Amino acid sequence: MKFISDKIDKFCLTHRRFGIPSLMRYIVTISAVVLVVSWLDKTGGGFRELLTFYPDRIARGELWRIITWVFIPSGGGTGFTDLLWGAVSLYFYYFIGKTLEHEWGAGKFTIFYASGVVLNIVYGLIVWFVFYSQIGPAAKFLFVGFGPAYINLSMFFAFAVLYPDMKIMLFFIIPVKMKWLALVDAALFLYTVIAALAAGQFLLAFLPVVAIANFLLFCGIPNFRLFRARAKSNVIHFKSAAKKIQKRAAAEGYRHKCEVCGRTDVTNPELQFRYCSRCEGFHCFCEEHIENHQHRN
């Protein structure tokens, strides 16, 4: 999986204009509209029904269902509390998505989200065809809960790996580190798989695994202890490398030099320069490449 992830990084480096900037803003905005319209809908869920992923209806020409399921928010009740928690959930995932885009760049985040969508669509079609041959039109009930929940949770796992010690206020009261919430979600994932297997729904049991596969493709197997150890090692290398680079920069007459394009604060004083916290050691990049470079590990 690291090989594929490295290929994606290289692709994004050579195609810097690829991707949809502020992708989560568009997704959350449309989802918020769906949330409000669903809350106002008095037809018993007819509006959400119109957006749900049903392969048989897609085959009959309702092609919008291939993508509209992505914008169906969690919940769906008609109470004010349902609306409130739906809005909080959307804001939370907007914050996560925006942070991941800032960390990875628009190109890589777009590929991450799009691959999650495509994997779910492909797996949903496989489930449909297999179950339809067994139970016919009644297979429709399998897709009632088909939505972006697993994509958002895979996005949450990626965020937790990048920022394991960040704290959020659970229920606006209890401070909890992201890594512990990720472990709870992982346990829920495992429970979902086991419960579906116990019920004999073998294909549905692996729907959460699709989201995990997307997460592993980009982030690998998380190990928070190694993650912390790596961070400490980075601090050590950062200090030793900093002295060497500062000596070389002083000799050549500049303070900062981008490792991608080679521009310095002397040749291009209008540029801002930053040092990447994810790269091992002391690596400087200009404002154009701080979010679009292959990390040095």
Describe the sheet with the most strands.
Answer: 2 strands, antiparallel
Span between N and C termini? 16 Å
Task: Give the rounded overall mean pLDDT.
Answer: 76
Strands of the widest sheet, in order across it, are 1-2
DSSP E strands, number: 4
The residue ranges in which pLDDT falls below 50 over 5 or more consecutive positions are 223-236
- Broad structural category: mainly alpha
Description of the structure:
This protein is mainly alpha-helical. It folds into 2 domains: 2-222, no CATH class; 225-286, no CATH class. Helices cover 61% and strands 5% of the residues. It contains 12 helices and 4 strands. The chain has helices at 2-14, 23-40, 46-51, 55-59, 65-68, 80-104, 106-135, 149-162, 178-198, 202-205, 207-219, 224-252; strands spanning 167-170, 174-177, 273-275, 284-286. The strands form 2 sheets. A two-stranded antiparallel ribbon has the order 1-2. Helix 7 runs antiparallel to helix 11 (207-219) and helix 8 runs antiparallel to helix 9 (178-198). The protein is elongated and about 70 Å long. The protein starts with a helix and ends in an 11-residue tail after the last strand.
